[in-house]
Structures are given as structure tokens and as C-alpha cells.
């Protein structure tokens, strides 16, 4: 499936790159012949789309590799790093275009030759880039690819910049030469904004920012809908390219068996995979109580130490009975459940005295909160 997705992204991007190349060369050539720096700037913008296309191709190829031992979460961050690099490049290109345009702002001797041809090229660019945007966006939505979606918006920005160029050329034709330079500055600003937006979103992803609040709320809603989930805490989300990763602690009944608690966790994972698009990794931690603020049981002894202490205190009981004890670590203490064979009782009325005797024997073990003893045949 990864390879199929890569092939589709590759096909869409290659078609866009051919169009970007032809448009870029056409606009720069006509802009140079007609002395329109706005059209030249727009041509550079189109070629910057070509750079974007190649970066998308590179990132798509390598980010769709399967997870391995060195990259257990996959290679999705390659897309993120590529997008951040693209943002820096675009900001640099925008600065150069804007600086050159400002230098020529006061040049009133600008004359655009071949104005009709220049207008035609700009008009064709608007129509063509809007088509590329729609074609790429449709594929991005089908493939759920944020990278492809960003590239689609980059194409639409080229269509917007061509509209600005149309205004600039018309301004020069009407005798307002400075409008061409202003148009170039506006185009540069648009390129810079795209670059900054790409850089900002990539940086947020690289520092593992959470998903949008609406998305997190939806995830929380699906978890709480699972029967057996009492509450949730420490819900953490992040993205790796188009992949969503989720970590969550869910609280279940403190007396459930390990297997039942695990089963509830499996249902939570299955529901999130089914209901939330782009989720690729979910870690569910099962809690018997809310330990978000502090783990009250962190200093309690582990089972082998507890069993050893119980054996010393209950030296009259068979070792096999104590080995089968169930321990519940709750609220900073340990609750003990003990099943004993009914044969150890001389009569049924002796059960209460036996329970009190066992409880009294472990009274020195301050970490024991409660003892439940059941006599079974």
C-alpha cells in the first residue's frame, strides 16, 4: 500500500512539474522580452513550484519506506524536513525578488513591450495553475497527504500571483509604470508568506506539537465511548508527515483482571484506527487509578518482597496458598486477596476468627491496606 500511494503521488507531481516548467520558461521569456519584471518574478515563482515538485518526489520516495529497527515510527519526518527546507528556500527567493523590485520602484521609464502577449501568458498561467491546484488537491484528499496538499496550495498561490501580474501589466499600459514594480513586491510577499507558513507548520511538527483541539476532542470522545473506560488522562498526540501518533492512559476498574484491562485497551485501539483517519500508531496504557499528578505506589515493594513478608507472618499457612495471592496496588498501599482451602477450618464458625488472626499477623506491614480472604472448597 505504501508503494501504491507513492506511485500515485509521483504521477500527480510529475504532471504538475511539467506544467510548472513550461509556464516558468514562458513567463520569464515573455517577461524579459516585454520588460515586465512582475512577469519575470511570476516566472520565478512558477520555477519555485518546480523545485517544490522535485522535493516532493524525493520526500515521497524515501518517506514511504517501511519502518525498520532504526526508524520504528517510519520515515515520515523526511517529508517534514523537506517541507521546512522548502520554506527557507522560498523566503530567500522572495527576499531577492522584493529587493530588486524596490530598487526599481522609482523608475518611471519602464515600458512593457508586447503587452498583449504578456497579458495572454499571465492569463493562461491563472487558468493552468488553478487546474493544477484542483487536480493535485483532489489527489491529496484521496491519498490523505498533507505534503501533496501543501504543494497544491503552492500551485494556487502561483495562480494568485499571476492575477497580481495582470494588474501590474495593465497599470503600465495605462501609464503607471510603478504598478509593475509594486506587483512584483506583492508577488514576493506572497512567496514569502508561503515559505513562512510551510516553515512554521514543519517546525510545529518537528517539536511534536499536538493535533488541532477539535481533532483531540474527537479522539477523546471515541475513547470515552468504549465500555469499560472510566476516564482518560495524559492523552498525547503528534504528527509525522501525514501520520498521526497517539499515546493515552485509560483508567479502568481497579479490580479487573490484567487480561480484561488489556482487552479494553485493544478495543480502544481498534476504534481509533477505524474512526480517525491517518492514525498509524497508538499506545494505550491501562491504569487502575488516576496517576497523572503523582504515582502514589512508586515506593511500594514488588511482589516477591511482599510474598516473602507474608510468608514470614503467615508461617502456619501452606506456601502454595500464599503464592496464589492477588495484590492490588492502589492509593499508596497494597490490597491483598487470599484464597484458602476450606479444609484448614475446623468448622465454618471458625472462619471469622481465622481471618482476624491473619489480619492481625500482618499489622506491622504498614503498606498493607486491606486483606480479603475467601475460603474455597
Structure description:
By secondary structure, this protein is an alpha/beta fold. The protein has helices at residues 2-34, 37-63, 77-103, 115-143, 146-173, 178-206, 213-224, 258-275, 303-313, 319-323, 350-361, and strands at residues 231-240, 243-251, 279-287, 326-330, 333-341, 368-376. A 3-stranded mixed sheet has the order 1-2-3. Helix 3 (77-103) runs antiparallel to helix 6. The two termini are 57 Å apart.
Summarize the structure.
With 377 residues, this protein is of the alpha/beta class. The protein has helices spanning 2-34, 37-63, 77-103, 115-143, 146-173, 178-206, 213-224, 258-275, 303-313, 319-323, 350-361, and strands spanning 231-240, 243-251, 279-287, 326-330, 333-341, 368-376.
Quick tags:
377 residues, alpha/beta, three-stranded mixed β-sheet, 11 helices, rod-shaped
Measure the end-to-end span: 57 Å
Stretches where pLDDT is under 50 for at least 5 consecutive residues are 110-114
Tell me the major beta sheet. 3 strands, mixed
Q: What's the number of extended β-strand segments?
A: 6
